[in-house]
Amino acid sequence: MPHLRSKLALIVALAAVAMTAACANRSSQSSAPQQSASASASSASEALYDPQALPTGPLGASIKLGHDILDDTQKYLPHNVVAGMSCSACHVAAGTQARAGSLVGVYARFPQWNKRAKRMITLQDRIAECFLYSMNGTPPAYTSKEMIAMVSYMAYLSRKVPTGQPVAKDTRFIVALPSAAPNVAHGAALYAQKCSMCHQANGAGVAGAFPPLWGPTSFNNGAGMSHLAMMTGFVLYNMPKNAPGSLSMQDAYDISGWVLTHKRPVFQKDRLITQPSQPAKFF
User: Fold this and answer.
1) CB 3.0–4.6 Å: which of 176, 249, 265, 270 could bond 220 by disulfide?
2) Cis-peptide into 111, omega within 30 deg
3) Residue 137 to residues 66, 144, 230: CA-CA distances in angstroms?
4) Interval 159-171 mean pLDDT
């Protein structure tokens, strides 16, 4: 009998070890896709922008400044930004991440016709739009080192994209919306569960870390993100920050619908925007 008990104990121990190993393997397999996707996005971003591989001299310095402005706009252009966010709030990883406001190829598509302005616009005009709408502020002068730096950076990201090349589909995040209106009550519940820890229950965000989604320091009602299709796509592919891609289309739609029910600044379309004059010798 003692010998039999020893055998049984050994069998139970081996079974426990096998079960533990199986569980660990399943856990590893379930987290692998998300970890792999995250690592892949990080690797792609590093390949697009490596500060150690920039051109030398003034051009490299301008490209780096452009990257840094997008990454922390409030630090470099505090007088041009009213919203409590940086460009990277919508252009993740300074515009190097696909389906997250990627800026790859943007430089190669300008000048272009703009439906809202009803005229041909340059890349500087498009950047100015972002400052006026998304940042609810004032664009830097077109001849300023900051504006030129942002253009230099976008040109650098687009260095392998032929002029006029259509944007690759995986860099866009505007989606086809469900036919029914969003369920804002469901969106409110999901927001409290998955979004409020970063963007706060009152939507005010955390300064320097998570952008406000509504209220006086958020983007104004003319910004691209104030459109339901754009916000839904961005949320679908990029939120929540700790588990991007984990929401269903309906979840992203409902959350976005609820967020956009809140008040935000109104775009002042008649406000005059002036650029400082320069002596002829500047040119």
Assistant:
1) 265
2) yes
3) 18, 16, 21
4) 75
Identify any residues that bridge with 210 across adjacent strands, giving them in sequence order. 206
Q: In 105-143, which positions are buried (b, 16+ CB within 10 angstroms) versus exposed (e)?
A: bbbbbbeeeeeeeeeebebbbbbbbbbbbbbbbbbbbee
Q: Do domains 48-171 and 184-259 have the same CATH topology?
A: yes
User: pTM for this structure?
Assistant: 0.83
pLDDT at 42: 67
pLDDT grade, residue 257 (50/70/90)?
Answer: very high
Cα–Cα separations (whole angstroms), residue 103 to 23, 132, 154, 211, 280? 41, 18, 6, 19, 33
For residue range 112-148, list pLDDT tens digits in order. Answer: 999 999 999 999 999 999 999 999 999 999 999 999 9
Which CATH number applies to 184-259: 2.40.50.430, 3.90.1150.10, 1.10.760.10, 1.20.1250.20?
1.10.760.10
Fold of 48-171: Cytochrome Bc1 Complex; Chain D, domain 2 (1.10.760)
Contact yes or no for 132/273 (Cβ under 8 A): yes
113's enclosing H/E stretch is strand 112-114
The predicted structure's pLDDT at residue 33: 44
Contact 156, 108 (CB under 8 A): no
Amino acid sitting at position 56: T
Task: Give the DSSP letter of residue 164.
Answer: T
- What is the model's pLDDT at position 252? 98
Q: Which two tokens stand for residue 57?
A: 């001299």
Cα–Cα–Cα angle for 136, 51, 44, nearest 5°?
80
Q: How high is the mean pLDDT of the chain?
A: 87
